[in-house]
From TrEMBL:
InterPro entries in UniProt: PP2C, PPM-type-like_dom_sf, PPM-type_phosphatase-like_dom
PANTHER family given in the database record: PROTEIN PHOSPHATASE
Organism listed in the record: Thioalkalivibrio sulfidiphilus (strain HL-EbGR7)
Protein name as annotated: Protein phosphatase 2C-like protein
All residue ranges annotated as the PPM-type phosphatase domain in the record: 8-255
Organism superkingdom: Bacteria
GO molecular function: protein serine/threonine phosphatase activity
One Pfam family from the record: PP2C_2
Length: 276
């Protein structure tokens, strides 16, 4: 049985001031410990089709697979946990479905989406992403970006042609080098780590981090702490007040203490029943 970490989730999404429709998609299953965000691309509403396929497919696949897994069990060949391998396979399944949908309907030719997600299990978290949607972690009052953008500008930063501040204003900063649905296969970056009580994980589309810098994101989270609902609202509001040139979406996840008083009621009941 999958031993999910106790979490609280808050999310917000907004079309912004420029775009006519929202191509971002967000989803979560707190009981399963999964949060997902996708930022679609493509004309004739194809972006929102791609992002919704990604979120729905991943949640459906993990709801089917994760409950039957043993927490922390390692894949003997690859060295990742079974949960991480399930996450990767769900993303690859989403890539296949988007690609097939684009091949079968010329209106959606070339559609794709970024993807960032986290799956919490026990005291572990699996992080996976494709594209430039980001995941940040707030721990001990310090914000850290845990994903690396799959963009041309990030590759230039890595090779020393730009620094991070120059990259923020570069004309080609949003040109992604990876996305779901563009090719029959895709490389998925995965990361495993400890999820500590009090950690806050932020998933966001580039409509957030293009509009406000990391120091503003950090300050906003600190000002609202520990209220992640208020934090999500303020992050989106500040992105809109800074121009709102793109769809903006955020998903905030706070890892709870496993002490019964800090858990949601349904988790407290389960914990008490296990002890009796």
């Amino acid at each position: 049985m999958n031993d999910t970490a106790p979490i609280l989730v808050a999310s917000r999404t907004d079309t912004g001031h420029v775009r006519s429709h929202n191509e971002d998609a967000i989803g979560n299953d707190p009981h399963l410990g999964v949060v997902v965000l996708a930022d679609g691309m493509g004309g004739y509403s194809s972006g929102e089709v791609a992002s919704q396929i990604a979120v729905n497919t991943i949640l459906d696949e993990l709801q089917r697979v994760l409950p039957g897994l043993n927490p922390g069990e390692l894949d003997p060949e690859l060295g990742y946990t079974r949960q991480t391998m399930a996450v990767r396979e769900a993303i690859l399944r989403a890539n296949h479905k988007i690609y097939q949908a684009a091949q079968q309907d010329t209106r959606h030719a070339g559609m794709g989406t970024t993807l960032v997600m986290a799956a919490f299990h026990g005291n572990q978290v699996t992080i996976a992403h494709v594209g430039d949607s980001r995941l940040y972690r707030m721990r001990d009052r310090r914000l850290e970006q845990l994903t690396t953008d799959h963009t041309l500008i990030q590759e230039l930063v890595d090779h020393g042609y730009y620094n991070r501040e120059e990259a923020r204003t570069a004309q080609n900063k949003n040109l992604v080098t990876r996305a779901l649905g563009i090719e029959p296969s895709v490389a998925v970056d995965v990361l495993e780590g400890l999820a500590l009580p009090g950690d806050v994980y932020l998933l966001c589309s580039d409509g957030l981090n293009d509009m406000i810098d990391d120091s503003t994101i950090e300050r906003t989270l600190l000002e609202a702490a520990p209220d992640i609902e208020a934090a999500a609202e303020r992050l989106v509001e500040r992105a809109l007040n800074s121009g709102g040139r793109d769809n903006v979406s955020v998903v905030l996840t706070r890892v709870l203490d496993t002490h019964p008083k800090d858990l949601p009621w349904y988790k407290r009941i389960t914990k008490i029943l296990k002890r009796s």
